[in-house]
Amino acid sequence: MSRVVRPPQWAGITTSPWSLDPGRGNDPYEEVEVPRGRGPDRTDGMSKAAAVTDATFDNEVLKSSTPVLVDFWAEWCGPCKMISPVLEEIADEHKGKLTIAKLNVDENPEVAMRYGVMSIPTLALFIGGVEKKRLIGAMPKRNIVNELSEFIS
Fold it and tell me: Does pTM surpass 0.85?
């Protein structure tokens, strides 16, 4: 007489007799649910900077009543990540006089092409809908502030 051995069943999960820890995803053929949230917001760390897109650029930057410093950046850009905390500090120190906006050039290429942004990071200062100053590349905070001082003092 042969006896048929069935794998055990817990809480509706059928496990393999080869599982090291049944129901815990140790069997390579067992299906497990992986919790997934929404993807990371690329500007989560930038609470002082507004994320702008191709669709919102005109309203949030060009029609702004205060000067807007737009950071043209990309996720893969190391220097862009280096200047993010510097822009945070500048936004804190010049609250009310200057708005910082971030535009991801990979996700929003139209505005970058419209303004001829060829290198990142590029910081462009807009006042009254017109670009008044452009800074290209990562630089220390004192250099950024010195370049913008005539516009934000």
Answer: no
Distances (CA, A) of 133 to 4, 24, 108, 150, 152: 79, 58, 21, 10, 12
Cα pseudo-dihedral 20, 24, 26, 30, rounded to 10: 120
DSSP 39: P
| Residue in this structure with the two tokens 């029609």, named with its chain if needed | 63
SS3 content of the chain, % helix, strand, coil (to 5): 25, 20, 55
Q: Mind listing the pLDDT tens digit for each residue in 38-70?
A: 544 444 444 568 899 999 999 999 999 999 999
- Active-site residue numbers? 77, 80
CA pair distance 145, 153, nearest whole angstrom: 10
The span from the CA of 134 to the CA of 116, in Å, is 11
Confirm if 92 and 103 have CB atoms less than 8 A apart: no
